[in-house]
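seq as requested:
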Amino acid sequence: MTDEDVFGYQHEVWSRPEVEGYDELVDVIDVEHIALPYADRVQDLAQLSAGMDTRYRASHLAVIAPSEAAYGIGRMYQAYRGLDRQSTKQVGVFRTREEALAFLGIAEQDISSA
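struct tokens:
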């Protein structure tokens, strides 16, 4: 996973008006390598993301990050995002899918039956 991947995702998905205010689940369980060249890129991403948040409804972002590297980067993102006054999205970083779904208020059976 590169900074191009995460910045590209942010621009491509969250610039669409039809997803404004939605909750979000990011699963990096299968990511084998994270290639973010500088820690300040995490802060840049948090700032960009917060600037794209809807002002009308608070939402949630759950990150499933079982590896040490992914979890650490996720927590950095969570901290930077939480400090940004523009942010209306509550971020949670979790080791398991079950924890992430609970944070989003989604029952596992609701996903399995969809």
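The first strand starts at residue 24 and ends at 27.
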